[in-house]
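Human: I would love a firmer grasp of how sequence relates to backbone shape in proteins. Could you go through the record with me and say what the backbone is doing? Here is the record:
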Amino acid sequence: MPAKVDKEKCTGCESCIEECPSEAIKMLEDKADVDVDTCVDCGACVDSCPTEAINME
């Protein structure tokens, strides 16, 4: 299952973008946004998020 971003918790720090091996995360309105078709479900973004705004659903 692809990663999901809690927009309320996301601060737009972009640490998830740097860690994503499939380049599935982009910024949209200053918040991380995951392209579910590109996401490879690795969880690297979850581990890199300092605000715990990303989880695997």
About this structure: The chain has two helices and four strands. The helical segments are 15-19, 44-48.
